[in-house]
Write a structure and sequence with these properties.
Number of strands of chain B: 15
Oligomer: heterodimer
Helix content of chain B: 40-55%
CATH topology of the largest domain in chain B: Rossmann fold
CATH superfamily of chain A: Thiamin diphosphate (ThDP)-binding fold, Pyr/PP domains
Number of domains of chain A: 1
Radius of gyration of chain A: 17 Å
Bound molecules: thiamine diphosphate, iron/sulfur cluster, magnesium ion
Number of strands of chain A: 9
Order of helices and strands of chain B: EHEHEHEHHEHEHEHEEHEEHEEHEHEH
CATH topology of chain A: Rossmann fold
Shape of chain A: globular
Strand order of the largest sheet of chain A: 2-1-3-4-8-7-9
Structural class of chain A: alpha/beta
């Protein structure tokens, strides 16, 4: 009897067990990225640039060449790679502290230059790795270990909306914000990730997908509650959708 | 070899191109912007890629990226910019990536000024960034030597998979001198480590990260082994009229060149002075200097700093010979006359 595999681990994952907490969305997004790399047939020329953050090990989780950049500098490292080897496919995978605080300058200038680089941006409104400190994306009123009285706009300013900032930059070829809380969202997110890679492989410009993600551990909630909290609070602050699409529909 | 007149920093740029460097990333800063500009002009002519980064922080990380995919890379900056690069240099050193840096040192600390200085000696030779790593540091004293050391820098960077620094200053950088370029065959092999995409081989990683202290210690031990090799094989220095000398001047880079004039002035007056000029600041020529200083009545260290190399001179001489120091700081360049006058005062006091 012949069997056809209908569901398997993507070739682009290394089979190394993830180190993420139960209910963390990093793992779902990793899988989606790996599926896209498989489907585009680019695994053997793809390089991942991992950040410093909970996904610091991402370069070990993908079955591709990879490295880990200093905190915030992933897109600068990716820029160097692409300028030296334009034939490679390079993507960065970054958290909100990495991309929107310490690495803001690199993020904006990489996007503005339209580097042929793809970025997966995990916005969990918190510094996960260092134990739950305030992120630039932390919501107003949200309590973190460094905003113990709740984030107040007078003291800490407002949540940073990266997509709304980046959409003004002409080097950006694909830009979208999404979530992975329902199966439908998962499919939409995968479509966006594919387009963000196509923006690079079709030589159009910079591609970024922001994924609103849970951090049950540092939010202090069980996974299901964290999903609900994301739906009820993060989606309100950070509207979902496509901000820039120069890739167009696949034929 | 045909000689051409070139400005120091431009000669370094041309030497880098001759060494096969096709990727440059940098951020403008005086007194080295002409090197950045030279690369912007020249690299497209040879099929290379120039990129003005948004900061020195970005530049050093672009270097990390371009080096990790196997290309010869260079950046140049001056003191404040070099400070900003330190985190990235530490990563590059730990990840064992070849990369060439040029620091055209200027007066500091802080914003300082834009005049020649050697005040970044500690930063260059004793770390600068975090952790147990070493930078190979080359200190040229003429434009010709700067080109030769630039070619050498790329070879050493690849041979040891380590960052190499050309430690220059604004005087050398801005000075025009005739130079001849050595025609060299470029050979280096990074096929066993570069990130080139995992076609027909298992994926590989370039990393400075190991969460397990025992694993990270192993990486450190490997680095230290490499540094011992560098120390054994790559120490370079120049000795000038030292055999019959009674007094030894120790100076590097631009000051080494000025000190040579002092030696000549002194010899004209019948004073037996010699010069010991370290060319590699790391690895420092401790043994050679120790030998050179033997049976001299005095060692005079001259620097454009408050006496940073002086500490290495003391380590080399190890209390066996009296050591004096003369230094100017903040971008003030000592003249041969003032050094000679100081030397004569010391001799009278002996
Ligand atoms: C230069 C530097 N500063 C600070 C840190 C400490 N640090 C590590 S991860 C991190 C924040 C990570 O948060 P984020 O980027 O949101 O990723 P997450 O863990 O939430 O996925 C910080 C501040 C560091 N490693 N390097
Ligand atoms: S701390 Fe938060 S972001 Fe990090 S792995 Fe755990 S749940 Fe995920
Ligand atoms: Mg985060």
């Amino acid at each position: 009897m012949e069997f056809t595999a209908v569901y398997k681990m993507p070739d682009s994952l290394s089979k190394k067990p993830f180190t993420y907490c139960p209910g963390c969305h990093h793992g779902i997004v990793h899988r989606l990225v790996a599926e896209v790399i498989d489907e585009l047939g680019i695994r053997e020329k793809t390089i991942i640039v991992a950040p410093v953050g909970c996904s610091v090990f991402a370069y070990e989780f993908f079955n591709t060449d990879g490295t880990v950049a200093p905190h915030g500098r992933a897109t600068a490292v990716a820029t160097g790679m692409k300028r030296a080897r334009p034939d490679l496919v390079v993507f960065t995978y970054q958290g909100d502290g990495d991309l929107a605080a310490i690495g803001t300058a690199e993020t904006i200038h990489t996007a503005n230059r339209g580097e042929r680089v793809t970025t997966i941006f995990i916005n969990n409104a918190i510094y996960g790795m260092t134990g739950g400190q305030m992120a630039p994306t932390t919501l107003l009123g949200m309590k973190t270990t460094t905003s113990p009285y709740g984030r107040s706009p007078e003291r800490e300013g407002y949540p940073v909306h990266m997509c709304e900032i980046l959409k003004e930059l002409k080097g950006v070829a694909f830009l979208a914000r999404t979530k992975v809380t329902t199966p439908k969202d998962v499919l939409t997110t995968k479509k966006y990730i594919k387009k963000a890679f196509l923006a690079q492989t079709k030589d159009i410009g910079y591609g970024l997908v922001e994924v609103l993600s849970t951090c049950p551990t540092n939010w202090g909630m069980p996974p299901i509650k964290a999903m609900q909290w994301l739906e009820q609070n993060m989606v309100v602050e950070y509207p979902l959708g496509v901000f820039v699409d120069k890739v167009g529909e696949e034929k | 070899m045909k000689k051409v007149m070139m400005k120091g920093v431009e000669a370094i740029g041309e030497a880098a191109i001759k060494a096969g460097c096709r990727n440059y990333f940098g951020y403008p800063i005086t007194p080295q912007s002409e090197l950045t500009e030279y690369m912007a002009r020249r690299l497209p002519e040879v099929g290379g890629s120039f990129l003005q980064a948004e900061s020195e922080v970005a530049a050093v990380n672009m270097l990390y990226g371009a080096s990790s995919v196997g290309k010869r890379v260079m950046t140049s900056t001056s003191s404040p910019g070099f400070s900003l690069m330190q985190e990235g240099i530490s990563y590059i050193a730990c990840a064992q990536l070849p990369a060439v840096f040029v620091n055209v040192v200027r007066g500091g600390p802080g914003l300082g000024d834009i005049q020649p200085s050697q005040g970044d000696y500690f930063q260059a030779t004793k770390g600068g960034g975090h952790g147990d790593y070493r930078l190979i540091v080359l200190s040229p004293s003429t434009v010709q030597e700067a080109t030769e050391l630039t070619l050498l820098a790329f070879d050493l960077a690849d041979k040891y998979r380590n960052p190499v620094l050309i430690f220059a200053d604004g005087l050398l950088g801005q000075m025009m001198e005739p130079v001849a370029f050595e025609e060299k065959e470029i050979t280096y092999d990074n096929s066993h480590w570069a990130l080139t995409g995992s076609k027909n081989r298992p994926p590989r990683q370039v990393t400075s990260f190991n969460i397990d202290p025992y694993g990270l210690e192993k990486m450190n031990i490997e680095l230290q082994k490499k540094y011992r090799q560098v120390e054994a094989n790559e120490t370079r220095y120049e000795e000038f009229l030292i055999e019959d000398a009674d007094i030894l001047i120790v100076a590097h880079g631009t000051v080494g060149r000025i000190a040579k004039s002092v030696v000549r002035m002194a010899r004209e007056e019948g004073l037996k002075i010699g010069l010991f000029r370290p060319i590699t600041l790391y690895p420092y020529p401790y043994d050679a200097l120790s030998k050179a200083a033997q049976e001299k009545s005095l060692v005079l260290t001259v620097e454009m700093s408050s006496g940073q190399m002086l500490e290495d001179v003391k380590l080399a001489v190890c209390g066996k010979t009296k050591i004096e120091f003369y230094g100017r700081m903040a971008g003030v360049v000592p003249t041969p006359e003032e050094i000679f006058t100081h030397l004569k005062t010391l001799i009278r006091g002996q």
